Every structure is written in C-alpha cells, then in structure tokens.
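Subject: mismatched residue count in predicted assembly?

I count 314 residues in my input, but I want to confirm that the predicted structure covers every chain. Input:
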Amino acid sequence: MIPNKTIDALRDRGLRLTRPRRIILDVVRATDAHPTAAFVYRRVRRRLPRVSLATVYRNLQMLAAEGFLAERADAAGMRFDGNTGPHDHFTCLTCGRIYDVPAGAAGAARRRLPARTGFEVLDHRTEYYGRCGACRPPGGRSFPTRQRRSNGKPQGL
Amino acid sequence: MIPNKTIDALRDRGLRLTRPRRIILDVVRATDAHPTAAFVYRRVRRRLPRVSLATVYRNLQMLAAEGFLAERADAAGMRFDGNTGPHDHFTCLTCGRIYDVPAGAAGAARRRLPARTGFEVLDHRTEYYGRCGACRPPGGRSFPTRQRRSNGKPQGL
DNA sequence: ATAGATGCAAACTCTTTGCAGGTCG
DNA sequence: CGACCTGCAAAGAGTTTGCATCTAT
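Triage response: the counts match. Full output below for your records.
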C-alpha cells in the first residue's frame, strides 16, 4: 500500500500514480533484499503481466531521482532500496546477500556487528558524497540543501 | 616502474610479466583518478598501440583478483585503484571526480573533511564485507578467501 | 483534452569469451 | 618447448531510447 504522503508528493511534482508505477514502488518497498531491476520486473509481472522491462527501468530511475527509493551500484548492476532512511549495509562475500545494518560508527561497529548479528566483518569502506572545492561556489558558504540524491548523474552508489 | 616485490609476487603465482601487463599496472598506479577500463585502455595505447581492450579488461580483472589493484563499482561501470592500502573516498556529486581521503572515523570525518580539504560532505555510506551467519562454518573460524569478481550469484535477485 | 506514461523492439555501453597465433621463462 | 598470454571479432548482460498508443487527471 502506498501512503498518502507519497501519493501527494508524486502529484505535487506533476507525476502520475499509474498502475505500473504503484506496483513497482510497492514491490521495492516490500522487500529488504536490495533488488535488481530484473528482480523487480519478475515480481511486478506477477501482478501486471503485460508490464515491460523498460517501464520498470524508467520508474526505478525516476523514483530514485525523486528520492522515493535509494539506489546503489555493484558489479552486477544497479540495486534499489525502499528504505531511504540512514543505514549501512553488510554484503556477504559468500552468498552475495546484502543486509541492512543500523547506521553507526564504523570502527566500533566492526567489532560489534559480529556479536550482535552473526556477521563476520572482514572489510569495510566508507564513501563520502558532496562537493569538492573546485565545484563549490567560490564566494562563501553553499546553501544547505537537504539534497535528495537526484540531480547529477555522477551518483556513485 | 614495477617494484621487485610485485614482480616476484606475480611470478610466485605462475603469472608472467608481459609488456601489456606491466604497462597496464603502471598506468593504474600512476594516477589517482580511479580510472575506468576505457581510460586505462586509452593510456596504455599511447605506449603500446596494438593492445586490445580485451587484454586491458583481462589484466585489470586478474590484477584486482590477485590483490595488486582495488576495484569498485559505480553507476558508470568498474573503476580501478592502484592504491590498495586502507583509505576512503569522496565523490563530488557535481563533477563526478573521486578523491582519496585518509581512512578515519566516519562521524568525526564528516565535520573535519570540509575544513581540511575543501570538501563539503552532504552524505556518506559505509559498506561492510564479510560473511553472514548462514555462510559461516557452524563450528569455528573461517579464513578469508580472496574474492574474485562477482563470484557469488546473489540468491536469485 | 492532453501532458505524461506505457509497451515493444531496436540500440547502446560495458564487459566477457572463443580461438588462432604469439611470447615469456 | 610449453604454458601462459594476446589480438581480434563476436557474443553477453544490463540499461536506455524512439515511437505509436494509451491513460490519469
């Protein structure tokens, strides 16, 4: 089910809540498996057999650009995440599954994670996103946009 | 120039130090731009015009699998990093450049980075890698196997 | 009514692979 | 000399796009 505030947020931007779009959003939000486009496509097709893969791609991309979903890249392609709140990820190098972990200090979590969740952490990486000196407005402070991961294409994860 | 210890490490694994291989390694290690395969190909071709893109891909993949290079995925494809030591990255959302930043506590760095480097950090993510409870040997310790590229097919996603 | 969205198929980009011939040790 | 490696071309995989048609609002 799509909450009213999501529906309103879409409409406020001139976006329609079509049947494919609603189901795509539903499917991504209903799983914590960080699905690929192909996975979403298979799931959506169970409810809407005539949907096209292109529609799934277009909607995932748009919903991520508008901040309704988070997206991340890995070696196999893009993955989407219905959980847009702050949280980190644990990727199992053996089975490839991606788990959510609560956002926390990297150093401490490295030791704490195993005890609490059964994860054995072998490595971790932190990626920062923002603006480099060359791209910041020269004069003064930049305005604190609470920017959704939307505008530019150079979005890393 | 390739240090002797790298040459020996290669040979110890039965790998040859061919001309294309040496130049590819050289090129990646000579830049901090986190190059794509295409970038490496262009650079290598300046020194070895008949090199093929396939050779560049095969070598980058192999050198990463053997631990001579680090690799990371982003929306545009794979990127390689000659710096295999522990460090984090800052990606500029405006120009797309990826900068190295010293490994450090995520929380503190978020405030400290701007002052020291001119980076304005808008967001950050930490990824943990390891083994989940389901994949750990039930009885005891596991030993870290070096990860090959996209070996574990992620559970039908 | 009409701007926006969809389905289909073709096109694109990045990456991998098969194979015959070349090369390092 | 033999195993490993390379160049070339073709194939794969994931993602995007052009276009006629359809549909929320």
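Chain B touches chain A through 58 residues (CB under 8 Å). Marking this ticket as 'not a bug'.
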